[in-house]
Design goal:
13% of the residues lie in helices and 44% in strands. It starts with 7 loop residues before the first strand and ends with a helix. A seven-stranded antiparallel sheet has the order 10-9-13-7-8-12-11. The protein has two domains: 77 residues, Elongation Factor Tu (Ef-tu), domain 3, CATH 2.40.30.20; 97 residues, Elongation Factor Tu (Ef-tu), domain 3 (Beta Barrel). By secondary structure, it is mainly β. The chain is globular.
């Protein structure tokens, strides 16, 4: 379990394809990793396969994860958002994030706005139905608040304000128009929908 508070903007040392899967080598900067530990990479819960004292670690990415996330588009030399799993005594500064990506959004535009940045993305309707104004969403693993959700026939547009700290310490600063962004909606919305099916 994660909170959506990014700890590191880390460099990808290598991306190695392997029979439809990937092995990612990341300069995590975490000197105390443990074998089998869970780390959120761009919001995707991955397992530490190997590591060294400098925090250079490798992660296995399955074909299912490649299909559902933007990890398949990663290139060596790029940057990923990292978060280690929360501890029970940790403050929950973001919201409950599982590291299970629901789909991908398309980055549409970023506009400077009153000292911050207004981010716009398009979402498939099957993902956007769990989004509400002032609700929580995780984008590339970052816990964020939705400013607005505007539905159209085939997709939805979401708007989010990015404060300078988040901009400077995450890979949102490296996005270009059309880029895929990992999305995890608030899991509580999915549970409510499931529980309400019997009454609808």
């Amino acid at each position: 379990m994660f909170s959506g508070i990014i700890e590191k903007l880390a460099k990808l040392r290598a991306v190695q394809p392997e029979d439809g899967r990937l092995i990612l080598t990341i300069e995590t900067g975490f000197p105390d990793l443990e074998l089998g530990e869970s780390v959120a990479v761009n919001g995707v819960c991955l397992t530490v396969v190997t590591f060294d004292a400098a925090g250079l670690a490798t992660f296995f990415v399955s074909a299912e994860t490649i299909a559902r996330s933007n990890l398949g588009a990663l290139k060596a030399g790029g940057f990923v958002n990292l978060e280690r799993s929360v501890r029970l005594e940790t403050r929950l500064s973001g919201h409950l994030v599982q590291g299970h990506v629901d789909g991908k959004a398309k980055f549409a535009a970023i506009t400077p706005s009153q000292g911050a940045y207004l981010l716009e993305l398009t979402l498939p309707r099957e993902v956007a139905r769990y989004c509400v104004e002032k609700g929580s969403i995780a984008l590339n693993g970052i816990s964020l608040t939705l400013n607005a959700v505007e539905d159209s026939a085939d997709h939805s547009l979401i708007r989010i304000t990015i404060i300078p700290h988040t901009w400077d310490h995450t890979n949102l600063q490296h996005l270009s128009p059309g880029a895929d962004v990992n999305v995890e909606v608030d899991v509580m919305a999915k549970y409510v929908e499931r529980l309400c099916h019997a009454y609808l």
